[in-house]
């Protein structure tokens, strides 16, 4: 509070050069202390002043970009404090975004300036989505967001713009999916172009954002994904099993999560292909953090295993390892019950004697054995 109080006092009197420093400080504080800066008393002290600056700055003033960068982080961690003005903020973002697109085409704005304005506008919309969740739908209702995203993804003017646009696709899918309801195949086609050329020149941030956005869309599109689920799965598996050292572990984890989410809505189409990727999927997902994405992924892959248990038979040690990777405190009871069902199915299939031989194999991880015995009674 004392720090914010001092920053507020400075914001009232500082000239442009020093205001830029304050914007950066607000950005850093929101990143480092999200809960503290989102406290109502603290927010009331500085949000009105930032909004005043927002209104005073012209659309071609580069100071606006620095302010937008700070507000992207602030809206992400304290969305409710911006709820009343969110629609106006978004409307200006759309205007800046569209103006920058037109300016680049007509060369009436410096390319670097157009790029910066576009990135900050897209990122601020992403911040509003993060902070407002489902309320983001009302904020962008009636906007041109689909057209702007489609144009930006189809003809990206820079790597940075493309990265931000991919992330916003995931944000819109997560918080305002009805906007994509009638254009899902077109957007999935645009996202899938990132999965086709896995070379040293592949941008990891693009691949990660595209994978995440694809998973968010698949999760909500449901069974309507069926007509394109198989070719999409082929591309995702290609990312997962790729042996190039240039692909970061996070990329493979995102690919595995997205495969799980596709399986959650189209398990009957994923199940026949389990043998192609089960080992890599389990190996990657055992390292994943215990969060909702991991829950979605395992729920999906379990559905596929239940339809085609033979698809993981040769890789069952990896299945056991992945199951044991869960912290029991974060394991949802329905998922734990499905794990138990799968484990007992395989034990019954091979018989008690062979099962004990499997568990007591010297190469079998003793911590995994202990987990299976203590948590699942095996």
Short description:
With 378 residues, the protein is an all-alpha fold. The chain has helices at 2-13, 16-32, 34-37, 40-56, 62-77, 86-106, 111-132, 136-140, 145-154, 159-175, 184-192, 204-221, 226-241, 249-270, 274-285, 292-307, 316-324, 333-350, 352-359, 366-376.
Structure explained in plain terms:
The chain is an all-alpha fold. Helices cover 74% and strands 0% of the residues. The protein contains 20 helices and no strands. It has helices at 2-13, 16-32, 34-37, 40-56, 62-77, 86-106, 111-132, 136-140, 145-154, 159-175, 184-192, 204-221, 226-241, 249-270, 274-285, 292-307, 316-324, 333-350, 352-359, 366-376. Helix 6 (86-106) runs antiparallel to helix 7 (111-132), helix 10 runs parallel beside helix 12 and helix 14 (249-270) packs across helix 15 (274-285). The longest helix has 22 residues, at 111-132. The radius of gyration is 24 Å and the shape is elongated. It starts with a helix and ends with a helix. The model has no long low-confidence stretch (mean pLDDT 90).
For this entry, give a set of tags:
elongated; 378 residues; 20 helices; mainly alpha
Distance between the termini: 54 Å
Helicity range: over 70%
Please state the overall shape, judged from the principal axes of the Cα atoms: elongated
User: Mind telling me the C-alpha Rg?
Assistant: 24 Å
Given the helix and strand composition, which structural class is it? mainly alpha
Beta-strand portion reads under 5%
């Amino acid at each position: 509070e004392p720090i914010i109080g001092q920053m507020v006092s400075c914001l009232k009197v500082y000239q442009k050069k020093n205001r830029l420093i304050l914007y950066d400080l607000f950005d850093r504080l929101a990143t480092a202390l999200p809960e503290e800066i989102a406290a109502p008393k603290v927010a009331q002290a500085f949000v009105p002043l930032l909004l005043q600056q927002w209104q005073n700055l012209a659309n071609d003033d580069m100071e606006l970009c620095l302010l937008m960068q700070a507000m992207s982080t602030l809206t992400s961690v304290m969305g409710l404090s911006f709820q009343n003005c969110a629609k106006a903020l978004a409307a200006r973002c759309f205007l800046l975004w569209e103006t920058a697109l037109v300016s680049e085409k007509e060369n009436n704005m410096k390319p670097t300036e157009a790029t910066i304005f576009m990135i900050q506008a897209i990122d601020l919309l992403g911040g509003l989505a993060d902070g407002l969740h489902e309320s983001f739908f009302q904020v962008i209702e009636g906007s041109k967001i689909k057209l702007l995203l489609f144009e930006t993804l189809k003809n990206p003017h820079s790597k940075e713009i493309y990265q931000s646009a991919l992330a916003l696709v995931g944000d819109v899918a997560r918080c305002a999916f009805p906007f994509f309801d009638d254009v899902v195949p077109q957007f999935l086609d645009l996202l899938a172009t990132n999965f086709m050329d896995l070379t040293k020149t592949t941008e990891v941030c693009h691949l990660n954002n595209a994978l995440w956005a694809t998973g968010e869309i698949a999760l909500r599109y449901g069974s309507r994904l069926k007509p394109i689920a198989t070719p999409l799965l082929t591309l995702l598996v290609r990312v997962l099993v790729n042996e190039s050292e240039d692909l970061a572990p996070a990329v493979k984890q995102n690919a595995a999560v997205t495969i799980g989410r596709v399986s959650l809505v189209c398990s009957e189409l994923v199940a026949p292909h389990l043998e192609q990727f089960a080992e890599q999927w389990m190996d990657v997902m055992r390292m994943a953090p215990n969060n909702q994405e991991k829950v979605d992924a395992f729920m999906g892959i379990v559905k596929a295993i239940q339809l085609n248990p033979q698809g993981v038979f040769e890789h069952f040690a990896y299945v056991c390892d992945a199951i044991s990777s869960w912290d029991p405190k974060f394991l949802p009871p329905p998922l734990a019950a499905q794990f138990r069902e799968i484990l007992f199915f395989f034990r019954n299939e091979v018989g008690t004697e062979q099962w004990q031989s499997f568990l007591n194999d010297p190469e079998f991880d003793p911590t995994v054995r202990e987990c299976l015995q203590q948590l699942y009674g095996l």
